[in-house]
Amino acid sequence: MKKHNWLSSLSRLFLWSHVIGVIGFYIILWLRTAPAKEDRATLEPSKPKNTAQPESNPLVSVIVPARNEERNIRRCVTSLLEQDYANLEVIVVDDGSTDATPRILEEIAQSHPRGSLLFVLRLRDSLPAGWAGKPHAIYRGTQEARGDWLLLTDADTWHAPAALNYAVCRAIDEQLDLLSLASRQELPGFWERVVMPMAYLGIMMQYPLRQVNDPSSPVALANGQFILIRRAVYDELGGYARPELRDTLLDDRDLAQVVKRQGYRLRMFDGRGLVHVRMYRNLRETWRGWRKNTFLGMRGGLAFTIVTLIGLPVVAIAPFLLPVLAWALNRFPAFKQQPVAPPEVALATLLELAPLLAYRRWVNKELDVPWYYALTHPLAGAIFEGIIAQSAWRVLTRKGVDWSGRQYYNEKASRARTERPW
Questions:
Q1: Domain check: are 245 and 330 in the same one?
Q2: Tens-digit pLDDT profile for residues 222-259
Q3: What is the pTM of this model?
Q4: Structural domain count, the chain
Q5: Which of 123, 191, 272, 369 gives 364 a disulfide partner, CB atoms 3.0 to 4.6 angstroms apart?
Q6: 7 and 119: one domain?
Q7: What does the alpha-carbon distance between residue 321 and residue 25 come to, in Å, rounded to a whole number?
Q8: 261: burial class by Cβ within 10 Å (0-12, 13-18, 19+)?
């Protein structure tokens, strides 16, 4: 009898410890990730003091690395040429594209009214030793740039006409050295709406916006879809020719870390009314896209990755399965005589799901995802469990991850690149 009482008490201890843990996790997550008032997400960022053309009207060089971007490049470059900021040049670095990207760029240059502002730099498919594709493309683009400011952006973005003018005015008003805008994610497909909120949760948990914008905090982050940086600061730091930036697969975060570590001013704002992006179009693209740098982006390295792999099912999947888990536990002979009562399990489930679904509803609202996708939270957790595990395994075992048709952290690919001359 005492044994059954002890087992019953132990099962209830596990149950309510889990309840307290899940509630605490989502409360802490909210407190950690909710933006400060001045950075709080809105449909458009708060306006800077002066939104007219800045008096100095500095030349801005927009640099767009592009590799096989025929689906996106026309929309991106057209939106950049149609900025209401007068003094700019657009440099597209065609990084060995084998699709229709070069032809589309040529058409834009010839047919667009501001096509004379577009310069296309075509690179060979091979990379110099020790470089990753995107850092190398940006580096080559900056060599051609004449601007006092550099805008680094991606080929899958769309920029509202006011985006560049807003960013330049705000950077000058606040005397910033690097300004980055968080973009609106275009998520029309089912799998994008399932997976992206979980990715957002993970990024904001590790890189809270308040800490990113706090000069006294070492946490740094930028969004590679929109990074405006002073040319003088970029050159002073060595840019992407800097040894630790040449082969990074986290070009935006690592550049932000260098900028902040060297004492320059960095801020990141919500820019969802100004910049849009569609990163992936199906589950396969989503999986491979996040796989390439999820492990590398973990702030705590391997130790934090292991904690995440253990904890993610506990806080993302188990709350939805609590009644099933309790039923299965009660099936064991040792627990049959004094099982955890269904009303107690129902109460525990309700207490866990309430903060979880409330937080997910907020995340879904931030990403313009329908509220009912909160019910796919365990599916998203299971998918990211696989992505994190495979990302870590492929990097640590040197099996390699792929990015735009190139292999990284792969022994054969690394050996081939090191044999290429500069």
A1: no
A2: 999 999 999 999 999 999 999 999 999 999 999 999 99
A3: 0.90
A4: 2
A5: 369
A6: no
A7: 18
A8: exposed
